[in-house]
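Researcher: We're teaching a course module on how sequence relates to structure. For the next exercise, students receive a sequence and then see the predicted structure as tokens, so they can try to spot secondary structure elements on their own. Here is the exercise chain.
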Amino acid sequence: MRVLSWTEGFCTISDPMTERLDRARRWVQSTLGVESADLRPASTDASFRRYFRVRGQDASMVLMDAPPESEDCRPYVAVSALLEKAGVHVPVIHARDLDSGFLLLEDLGNRSYLDELDDDSASALYADALEALLTMQVGVPADAVPEYDTGLVMQELALFNEWFLRRHLGVDTTGSSADILSKCFHFLATRFNQQPRVFVHRDYHSRNLMRTLERNPGVLDFQDAVAGPAAYDLVSLLRDVYVEWPRERVEDWMLGYHRDALSRGIPIAASTAEFLKDTDIVGAQRHLKIAGIFCRLYYRDGKTDYLRDIPLTLRYLADECGRQPQLAELGKLLEDLGVTAKLQERSEQILRDSENHGP
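Model: And here is the predicted structure for the students to work with:
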């Protein structure tokens, strides 16, 4: 029998979830018919999923560990099949144990768009990513995934108030503030759901796109796909909360997508002005949601790293509010509440607390 081992320089690590990790290792060994398998963390994730790289003599694979009590692998498997059929480069599923929450996947490497993007590479990488996006929107039927309905949109918007404004910044959002937030949230939800539906990856950004030698990019983290506005994934990609580009360059990429999408029959606004307005509407909803999620990841799950990306998230939101008259009241409210200054103070306090308490 073959024995899987790490390449030179890799080391065995300890893990607090020893029992589940041992169970995963035994499953990998049984599945691959090997006597030993070492699992090395492959990436971090904003969910309860974990990923481990298994390196053998001929190839490397990735184990997805999705504890069934908190995650469900079935949507991942279903959406993977839809994307593969459409011609999108997603990891091949080599083996699965859905009841246990284990998937053994093709390894698409460790060169994410986040690591690879720079001024020289951006145009080519985004051209590939936009082509893959168009392929998804044309090739995957919208009715094959759940709808991005008003209830879900409002549920996501509520995260901004609950976790960012109230929990993270300690802001009182009762009275007139509550009225403004409610009015703007309902406007966003209404406009959001007036747009025609296409397949939406829902987290199509630089951390979930891998630079691959063939069929670039490799697409990850698609299990939460829904049917929603075509502009949503475009905003996720080009107003990425982990990467910032000059506004003029982003708009050029967006208008290039707009031309290609119209030529392929994707249901979007024909006029560029109306289309760009739609990007601001879904962008504001997304950035409000993300600010709330990043704070929830800190307070609920103990994940600190995402806090550093909130300032860029809020800059995108401020730009979107500044361009759309219906969002001006929300933008003014955030200014009146002193959100930017409070965020800076809170970040400094967290840093001081971390230094005082040590690792």
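Model: If you want an answer key for the exercise: The domain at 18-106 is CATH 3.30.200.20 (Phosphorylase Kinase; domain 1). DSSP finds twelve helices and nine strands in the chain.
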